[in-house]
Structures are given as structure tokens and as C-alpha cells.
Amino acid sequence: EDDQIIGSYLEIQNVLFTDYGEYKCIISNSVDEDITLTAHVYEQEPQFVLHLPNGSERKSLLLAVLVVVLLVSVAAFYTRCWLPVALLYRDKFGRLEENDGKDCDALVCYHEKDSSLVIGKLIYKLESKHRYKCMPLELTNLHHNWSLEMSSHASAARRVIMVLSPASLDNVWTDASVAGVLKQLSVLPARTIVVALQGMPGTTATMAKRSRRDRRDILDGAGVFYEQLTVLRWKEGDGGREFWYKLRLAMPAIRPVASETGCQSVAMIVQANGKCGQQKARSRESLEVLV
């Protein structure tokens, strides 16, 4: 009331929880009039109310849900499709390695014990399905001299694919033995793709998993120049979907070609029409002979 009340004020201090409740206030003029008022004394808890325009809470919630769904969708798409999209873009717009004096796209090196997998699966799929020209090279048991066996052939290939397995190293699959082979491969005159039939051991696995940017110009303690190597893990069966995408990304770009189904269908129709004509002519000749 802006201090306009004339009279006295009653102030109650040190209020306890048991003091809250209902009270009666009696006002009297001591002559002929009494007024009784009921008063409730209670503790009001603080309330924090966010005042927003009508419908804005619903719009904000829908926007938040939409953002979350969009982020999850982008993450799922990236996880599932980034390799195919990257490969498609590279083959469509990437620089072609042509007229460079090379005889083949890949020199595929392997040990005799891995020949069935290399010839029957790896080279077969690279040539028949992905249109790469490969040249196989079977290596000897002297894995300490493999670089000498490969160097003369590697200069004529755009890539070198080395299939490495414990059997090819006399079942000595250690950091020292594997690093010794990688050291030889890292100095070849062509970029090298190592296809490991078993997980890399220890320190070698750690270096192989590092990104190309992180391991640039890195020469580790074993003398391996990892910038020149791409290490891929072959999975049981046919290698696995991810393996083939990564292998093709490491290989030279190849322009995609349109499906030849239509041309084949037309050829088959023409051929079928020709056969029908021949059959009709033979039937007419047979009828004339019969007459």
C-alpha cells in the first residue's frame, strides 16, 4: 500500500514448520462492531516458470528430435556407405594412371602355400569382376631376399600386392619377422598393398592401423617406411565387403562402364530370330520333300 496504512504492524519472526496453518484474526472497535477474518499461513515453494509463446515448446521439441534423427542418420550413412561412395567418386573423377609405361595394374606376389587363395580368389576377382590386369609372381622360401625377386617386376606394375601369411614365413609370425618383410616392401619402386591373412602382431599392428597422415614420413625402429604401405586384413571366405572396397581404393582408378545387358539382350533377340528363320526354312524344305 506504499506506506499509506496508518497504524501498527505485527511481524512474527523465527517461524517453525509447526507454526504453519489456519489462524483467526478478530478486529473490534470496542463498541458495537467485530470483524473476524481467517488467515492461512503457509510456505510457498519457489517456482521457476519459463514463459514461452504458445506452441513454442512443441516446436522446440520437434526441432530437437529432428536434429537428433538427422545426426543419427548421417552417422549411420557414413559408417555404412562412405567406402562405396568414396570409391565411386574416385573412379568417376579420379586421375587415370594410363600411358605410364606400365605393363599391368598389379604385381601379385605370394608364397607357394597361399597359391590356391591368391589364384582362385584374389586374382580371379580382381580380373573378372573389377577389370584389373594382374601379373602373378610366386616367391621362393627365402623371404629375406624377396625384395630382390620382386624389384625387377615391380617397376613394370602400378601396384604391388603382397599376400603375407604365417605359412609364408615358416610359421614365425612375430614383430621381427613381419617387420623384416615390410622393410623390404617399403623400398619397392611401386606402392605396395600388404594383404595379411592373419592379424598383424604387436607393434606392427599399431603402426599399420595409424592413418596415412599420422604415419607420414615415419621410419620406425625396424626401418619400415610405412608411408609406402597399405596394410589390409583378409577375412575368412572371400575377404569381406570392407576388404574389397579398401583394396580397390588402394588400386588405380578405373572408369565405371555402363551395363551391357541391353546390348546382350538385343544380340540374343537377333540370334533367336535367326534361329527361328532357319527352323522355318528347314520345316518348309521338309514339307516339300514330303510332298
UniProtKB/TrEMBL annotation:
Coiled-coil residues: none
What stretches pass through the bilayer?
61-83
Locate the TIR domain: which residues? 102-251
Q: Which InterPro entries match?
A: Ig-like_dom_sf, IL-1_rcpt_fam, TIR_dom, Toll_tir_struct_dom_sf
Query: GO terms for biological process?
Result: signal transduction
The protein's UniProt keywords, in alphabetical order, are: Disulfide bond, Glycoprotein, Immunoglobulin domain, Membrane, Transmembrane, Transmembrane helix
- State if NADP is listed as a keyword: no
Does the keyword field hold Membrane? yes
**Pfam families from the UniProt entry:** TIR_2
* Gene3D superfamilies according to UniProt: Toll/interleukin-1 receptor homology (TIR) domain (3.40.50.10140)
Q: Which PANTHER family match?
A: INTERLEUKIN-1 RECEPTOR FAMILY MEMBER, X-LINKED INTERLEUKIN-1 RECEPTOR ACCESSORY PROTEIN-LIKE 2
Name of this protein: Single Ig IL-1-related receptor-like
Lineage of producing organism: Eukaryota, Metazoa, Ecdysozoa, Arthropoda, Hexapoda
Supply the gene name.
LOC106740831
